[in-house]
Every structure is written in C-alpha cells, then in structure tokens.
Design a protein that fits this description.
The protein is of the alpha+beta class. The protein folds into two domains: about 70 residues, no CATH class; about 140 residues, no CATH class. About 45% of the residues lie in helices and about 15% in strands. The chain is built from six helices and seven strands, in the order H-H-E-E-E-E-H-H-E-E-E-H-H. The strands form two sheets. Strands 1-4-5-6-7 form a five-stranded antiparallel sheet. Strands 2-3 form a two-stranded antiparallel sheet. Helix 1 crosses helix 6, helix 2 runs antiparallel to helix 5 and helix 3 runs antiparallel to helix 4. The radius of gyration is 23 Å and the shape is elongated.
Length: about 220
C-alpha cells in the first residue's frame, strides 16, 4: 500500500481561471433540477388572483410552459381558463407589492369586465411551435356567446401580457440563481475543498448521487 498526499484549497484560494471553471460546473448543478418551482408557485398565485384557473400537467403542477433564455422564440405561456375575479388589484398588490405592473393589468381586465357585466370568460391553449405568448390561442366569450373580435383581441393581449410577465419572472430568477455572486455564495456555504485543478475533494454536501469530477 502507498499513500499519496495532495494539497487541497478553499474556493477563495484557487486561481481565477480555476474559480471560473468551478462556477461553470456549479451552474450546471444548480439548474439541473426544477429550480423554477417557487417561481411557478408565485406565477400561479398571481394568475389565480387575476382570475386564471390553470390546467394541470403531471401531478399538482400548473400548465405553465417556458423556454429560455437566449434563443429566438423564448418565452412563456399557460393553458387554462379565465373569468372575473373580485378585488384582483388589491390581492396582487399583497402578492407582488404596490409597484407591480400586474396591478395595472388587473385594473384593465376589471374595466373590460365591468363593461360586459362581469360575464367575460376565456379559454387559453398552447398553439404553435414555440412556448411563448404569441403561440397561444385565446377563445373569448361573453355570457356564453362568442365575443366580438375587438373584445377578443383585447382580452387575448391582456392575458398574453401576463404570460410575458411570467417569462420575466422566470428569467429574473434564473439570472439570480446563476449569477457569479450567488454561485460563489453557494460554493462558500457548502464549504468544499478543491484540488488545484478544480476537483471537489468532498461531495457530501451535494448528496451521494453526485460523483467527484473535474470542474474544468
């Protein structure tokens, strides 16, 4: 038997080029799982406050779809139904804060509903190749009758505005989770040690399913 001794380093002690490689590997780990679950939950809460009833996909997951965040066609959309919801602006202010653009959206939806005695309903479905707001079909009715074209277009654009806001929320969360500052905070919190070429010496903080590997 022989023993080989190697020096190990804290993240802060690594050369800058190795730090960069470690961060890139850590980003891959960070975004492997469903990093967007909390954002989905927030989007669902805001949507329900607006009057949206999301369809389901899988077990207890709202039918929200997105792709991102650097390609043509990236965006977000949902499938479900919409109907009038009382006190939507107030509820959204509680969920998002007084400066949220969703308050204005809720106000405009409420104004459209008032003109039609709060009888507007809509069905939204994904229709197209991309998962963005433009690739949706929105069927609007008033008291069970097909809405006039101008009203249908107006409600469609308002609901698509919610989809675009949803995409912004997802993008903001992704950018935050993958930022250098957040990645470095995660690495430092995990308190790992590294070899000179960026290998993690201990992976117990990442769980037994993660094998040691080069970060370069």
């Amino acid at each position: 038997m022989r023993m080989i001794l190697i020096p190990v380093y804290k993240y802060a002690e690594l050369p800058e080029n190795i730090k960069g490689a470690v961060r890139e590997k850590w980003r891959e780990w960070t975004t492997q799982d469903r990093w967007y679950d909390q954002t989905y939950q927030h989007i669902q809460e805001v949507g329900e406050a607006l009057g949206i009833e999301f369809d389901s996909k899988g077990v207890d997951r709202p039918a929200i779809y997105f792709s991102g965040f650097s390609s043509q066609g990236d965006g977000a959309c949902f499938e479900g139904k919409y109907a009038y919801a009382k006190q939507a602006p107030k509820r959204i202010a509680e969920l998002c804060g007084a400066e949220s653009p969703m308050i204005d959206l809720a106000t405009r939806l409420a104004a459209a509903q008032k003109k039609h005695f709060y009888k507007i309903t809509a069905t939204v479905r994904h229709a197209g190749y991309y998962q963005n707001s433009a690739n949706t079909a929105v069927d609007v009715e008033v008291n069970g009758n097909v809405a006039e074209r101008d009203l249908e277009h107006s409600i469609m654009m308002l609901l698509r505005e919610f989809m675009d806001w949803s995409y912004s929320e997802l993008e903001n969360e992704y950018n935050y989770l993958t930022s250098d500052a957040e990645i470095e905070q995660q690495i430092n919190d995990a308190n790992h040690e590294f070899t000179a070429d960026g290998r993690i010496v201990s992976v117990k903080e990442l769980g037994p399913e993660v094998e040691p590997e080069l970060a370069v």
